Amino acid sequence: MTGSRPSHPALLDWLAVEFREGGWNYRQLVRLIVTSATYRQSAVVSPALLERDPANRLLARGPRFRLEAEQLRDQDLAASGLLVAKVGGRPVRPYQPQGIWEDVAMKESTTRFYRTDSGENLYRRSLYTLIKRTALAPAMDILNAPNREVSCVRRDRTNTPLQALVTLNDPLFVEASRQLAARAVDAAPAFDARLDLVSLRLLGRTFSRAERGIVRRTLDEALTTYRRDPSAAKQLLAIGDSPVHEKIPAPELAAWTLVASQVMNLDESLTK
Predict the structure, then answer these.
(1) What is the mean pLDDT of each run of 10 residues along the chain (272 residues)?
(2) Residue 2 domain-assigned?
C-alpha cells in the first residue's frame, strides 16, 4: 500500500453521494467544488496556523502555486479579449517556433512540418491545441505541461528563469498585452481609469496609491523611450497576428503594452 489515508474521509463520502445522486454529472460536481468556500479561500496564513498545519492538509487556507501552462495562456487571452469561446471543432496550431516538429519526424510523416494557423484558430482555448507527443510546444514544456508520452498523475511544479522569459516574450503573451493595452487606451483618457481596467481584468482588484506610482514611472519611462525611437514601438506592436489599433499613436500603445505585460507578470497574476 502506498500513499497516505485521506485527510477528510467524511468529505469524500459526501462528495461521492452528491456525485451519484446528481446523476453522475461531472460538470455539476466540478462546479460544486470550485464554488465552495474551501476552494475559493485566500492563501494568506497566520504564523500559528502555519506552525500547526504547514502542509495545509486541513485545508484551512487556499493553495498558492503558479497556474498550469494552459490556464496561464487562456487567462491572458481572456483578459485581452482575444480568447475564442467557440466549443468543438478541429485541433488548432497556435504560435510555435519553426522546425520543432521537423527535427523529430520521419521524412514521410504527415506531421513533419508545423504550419501555424491564422485568424481565430490562434486564440482558441488550449484544450484544442494539436499536440505532437515527441515535440511539445516549448512554451508549454517550460511551464510544466505534460508531454503525453507517458501517463501523468501529477504535474511537476518548478520555478525557473525560463518561465519568466516565456510569459514576458512569447508572441502570444506579448500580443495579449498589446490587445489589453489597446482596450484600456480606447476605454478612457485618464491614467487611473486605464490602469483600473488592466488590473481588474488581470487581478480582480484596483491598485493602491503606492502601486500606481510605480506603474506611472514605468509608463513615463516607456513613453520617453518609444517617442525617441518610434521604430522600436512599431517593432513591438508588430508581434502577433491580430490587427494593430492604428488610431492609437504607436509610442503610447507600446508603452501601455509594457504596462499590461508588467501586470500580467506579477506573481499575483501568475499564481492561484
Answers:
(1) 82 96 95 93 89 89 90 96 94 90 80 89 95 87 87 87 94 97 95 97 95 96 97 96 94 97 94 84
(2) no
